[in-house]
């Protein structure tokens, strides 16, 4: 899902399959960028503490499940969040989670397009499958204007720019008309401010059929950026005023043979011609020039205080662009080009600067991600996600877990917004970074819990219950489960139990999924990790889990897995700060009863001391 920031992010073009793949990968990576401006609890005037915790600032509930509207992503800026819900849309003030307005439409689909000049632009698709664009006052919900394609556009002879998403700028919106034109729009009136033909683009597209029809265009906060390019000719960077379309400055670049890339963030422009990357400010000052390797890509993710931050993606080999080997963040002085420090970014996302802190989604083994709720197996694969935080000096904190399970929506000011599915709708949660004193026994990566707060998964069941189950079970602790988010625990967090008969029907596992900082966080995590809604990826329709709740905090469910869509019995239990999982290998009646019996037992044992005996 693209954030408002990413919608004005980057346009990239390649003539080789390798570069095309990298462009797509870069776009997907951009989705997961997290930026945090962090102080000691957000209090100004105090010395900054390196943040090591993420706490819930607010949450907002909608009555429509996010998976049911997954093709209509929410968008946000530094102050507002627009959430589509079929024929309605909620606009939330991200400073406090307060509902500002509810928008309504009779269109087939009603999608937020982004914020510009304090106005929310939306795209409405009618039952004739044609798009139109509207603008709303997000505070009052009043529609300001509505534009539909002209008759000429409907006949594919005019400017059908309403079918494309605009580049989002703080002061306006710019559309690509599809016929070599850019169209600048006044967000508050809907008036076309200007149109400008880019002749070099259309000429190149006619002579080079492999070059995509879309322009190499991007946007910073206040400028439209266009890269004129055609193989064998000099590339030229043009920067325009979004208010009138006039050229502000331009730079001649070298001739390009194989590839060209353009990317933009709020305060920096990056352009790579073959193996040379150049980074400019909005005003045209060149910040740095650097060569790229044949098996790496480098692009800017921001600039702050005279330091340019570059993200580098390295591949295992030039012939295999899918073999991503590493991602690295570079901090480079803009005046000298000297590298101040570098850090590995892990396998997940990129860091981005905001004030004195950089942050990214961390590579967290077991981090929950969207449809993983429908994955069966080791319940450690359904833990909360995490972020890594870095200060301006390059000192990186441990991975900081999210207090909720969910998927990243975007960021608004100093807040990370996460989306979670629940029984009766979708919850959007804003996370604020803070600082908590930690020690070796209570590392930041465990989110406020101590190592010994995690109970021994084998001892949670105990000999008495195993005897009551009527089978001769053998405990099989999972040695690898002693490590959670990089922290070594004193006990295994997963224990398998197998009958001596060797039958697959006599196998089940118990998992300590999470030890939350408090009971409320445990409940929030639990309700957002259960497979509510439907899973369209299973094929042959939309499958839903069969969920029952025999006792407060106990959730029993079965769902279909793998290509054969086998049914599997499962349970999630929350008791106090603890979240437990119980799973088996099938959904036979006896197995369902066994899972239920163990789950009910765990609901009573959740508050027992860590490592309590049998």
From TrEMBL:
SMART domains: PQQ. InterPro entries: PQQ_b-propeller_rpt, PQQ_rpt_dom, Quinoprotein_ADH-like_sf, WD40/YVTN_repeat-like_dom_sf. Residues 90-342 form the Pyrrolo-quinoline quinone repeat domain. Gene3D superfamilies: YVTN repeat-like/Quinoprotein amine dehydrogenase. Pfam families: PQQ_2. PANTHER family: CELL SURFACE PROTEIN, OUTER MEMBRANE PROTEIN ASSEMBLY FACTOR BAMB. This is Pyrrolo-quinoline quinone repeat domain-containing protein.
């Amino acid at each position: 899902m693209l954030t408002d920031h990413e919608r004005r992010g980057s346009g990239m073009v390649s003539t080789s399959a390798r570069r095309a793949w990298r462009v797509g990968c870069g776009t997907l990576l951009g989705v997961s960028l997290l930026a945090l401006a962090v102080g000691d609890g957000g209090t100004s005037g105090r010395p900054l503490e390196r943040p090591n915790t993420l706490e819930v600032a607010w949450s907002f509930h909608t009555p429509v499940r996010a998976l049911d509207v997954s093709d209509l992503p929410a968008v946000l800026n530094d102050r507002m969040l627009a959430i589509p819900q079929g024929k309605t849309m909620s606009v939330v003030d991200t400073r406090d989670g307060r509902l500002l307005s509810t928008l309504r439409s009779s269109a087939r689909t009603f999608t937020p397009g982004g914020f510009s000049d304090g106005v929310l632009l939306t795209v409405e698709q009618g039952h004739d499958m044609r798009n139109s664009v509207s603008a709303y006052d997000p505070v009052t919900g009043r529609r300001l204007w509505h534009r539909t394609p002209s008759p000429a556009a409907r006949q594919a002879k005019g400017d059908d720019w309403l079918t494309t998403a605009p580049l989002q700028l703080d002061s306006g919106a710019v559309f690509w008309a599809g016929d070599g034109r850019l169209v600048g729009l006044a967000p508050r009136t809907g008036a076309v401010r200007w149109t400008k033909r880019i002749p070099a683009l259309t000429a190149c597209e006619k002579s080079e059929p492999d070059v995509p029809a879309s322009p190499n265009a991007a946007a910073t906060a206040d400028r439209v950026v266009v890269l004129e390019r055609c193989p064998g000719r000099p590339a030229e960077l043009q920067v325009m005023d979004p208010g009138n379309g006039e050229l502000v400055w331009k730079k001649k670049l070298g001739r390009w043979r194989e590839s060209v890339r353009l990317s933009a963030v709020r305060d920096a422009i990056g352009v790579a011609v073959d193996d040379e990357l150049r980074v400019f400010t909005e005003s045209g000052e060149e910040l740095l020039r650097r060569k790229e390797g044949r098996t790496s890509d480098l692009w800017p993710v921001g600039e702050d205080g005279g330091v340019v931050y570059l993200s580098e993606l390295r591949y295992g080999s030039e012939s295999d662009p899918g073999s991503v080997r590493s991602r690295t963040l570079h901090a480079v002085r803009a005046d000298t080009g000297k590298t101040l420090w570098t850090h590995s970014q892990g396998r997940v996302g990129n860091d981005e600067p905001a004030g004195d802190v950089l942050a990214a989604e961390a590579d967290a083994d077991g981090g929950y991600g969207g449809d993983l709720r429908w994955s069966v197996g080791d319940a450690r694969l359904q833990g909360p996600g995490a972020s890594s935080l870095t200060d301006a000096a390059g000192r990186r904190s441990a991975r900081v877990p999210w207090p909720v399970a969910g998927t990243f929506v975007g960021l608004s000011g100093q807040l990370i917004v996460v989306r979670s599915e629940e029984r009766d709708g979708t919850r959007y949660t804003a996370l604020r970074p803070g600082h908590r004193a930690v020690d070796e026994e209570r590392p930041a990566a465990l989110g406020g819990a101590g190592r010994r707060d995690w109970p021994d998964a084998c001892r949670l069941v105990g000999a008495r219950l195993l005897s009551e189950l009527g089978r001769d079970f053998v405990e099989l602790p999972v040695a690898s489960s002693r490590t959670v988010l990089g922290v070594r625990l004193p006990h295994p967090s997963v224990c398998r139990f197998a009958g001596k008969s060797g039958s697959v029907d006599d196998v089940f596992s118990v998992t300590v999924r999470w030890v939350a900082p408090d009971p409320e966080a445990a409940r929030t995590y639990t309700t957002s990790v259960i497979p509510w809604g439907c899973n369209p990826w299973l094929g042959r329709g939309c499958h839903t889990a069969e969920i029952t709740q025999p006792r407060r905090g106990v959730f029993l469910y079965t769902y279909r897995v793998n290509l054969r869509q086998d049914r599997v019995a499962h349970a999630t239990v929350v008791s106090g700060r603890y979240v437990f999982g119980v799973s088996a290998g099938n959904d036979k009646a006896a197995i369902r009863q066994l899972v239920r019996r163990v789950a009910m037992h765990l609901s009573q044992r959740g508050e027992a001391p860590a490592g309590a005996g049998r």
